[in-house]
Fold these 3 entries.
Entry 1:
Amino acid sequence: MTKKRIIIGGIVLVLLMATVYGWYQYNRTVQTLSNVDADFSVNATALINEFVSNEDSANKKYLNRILSVKGMIKNYFNGSALQFASFFTRATNLTQVELESLKKIVEAELKNKKK
């Protein structure tokens, strides 16, 4: 009888521990990166060029690091100019100077397309 109690008690203990662990994992929160400083601040074009020129070196430098990448995300908008414009006018905190710079780029491209 005591052997049976030990086995049942062990099973109950394992189930209780599994339940507590599951509850902990279910209710944990994701850490925010708002208070974390980037290890590297790099331009998107420079980052791509670094990977193209020497992928192994770039992996050693950037892998498992926090990067602050500045530049245009070309493929995110699936080629849709409307999604692109909507994103940069509503969803970002671009300054007026940055928006004017973006406007100049778009106007230059429009001028090139008309030729």
Entry 2:
Amino acid sequence: MNQHLTVITGASRGLGLAMSRQLLAQSHVVVAIARKRTELPVPPGGELLGWSLDLAEPLAAARHLEDWLAKSEVTRWASVTLINNAGVVSPPGRCQARRVRTCRTPCAWASKRRCC
């Protein structure tokens, strides 16, 4: 039986948790990666592997996934999808008013120029 494997980072809450639930309901195998292990009820046909990994250490996480994939039967997967939902948002800093006033390009991102 070929199953769909989905690896989701940031799976312990919010959007990652919601996507994990939906994919499990569709009988996917979900590798849920988060700092805190994800635990969910698993409906028949689904499979959840909750891994407690900190993606601030990406090489350790990559090795863990690589080792697990090497041990799994490749023909088991109809598809493999990575949903990189983990994000690090640093606290906003103070705006330097002088730099903001000197910005004359209304859409610096669209013009691909850095103005400030």
Entry 3:
Amino acid sequence: MLMKEELEDGTLMNTAQVAHMLGLSRQAVQGLLRAGTLVSAKGAQHNINLFARTQVEKLAQERAASKAMRAAIAARRQHTRLRRIATMREKLARLEGRAQTA
């Protein structure tokens, strides 16, 4: 059977394999399918969806890049917040110094 051979050689992946590769639940993979983010390589036969490994790997790379971008943005925001706090502390220290000399 062709589908069995494709599953065994890794060309196609079932929902559980996709979920494991993406770090998601099987229900989340089904959600990606419904949303059109993932496309079933073979029509759903007997309620089993099969996905092309290349498609899943590409999605995994996109998710990793997106996660890295979000982390970089969060780090930049944190840096900005800390810089503002340091600036405010410096201004407060100067104001306190003026108040003590007055």
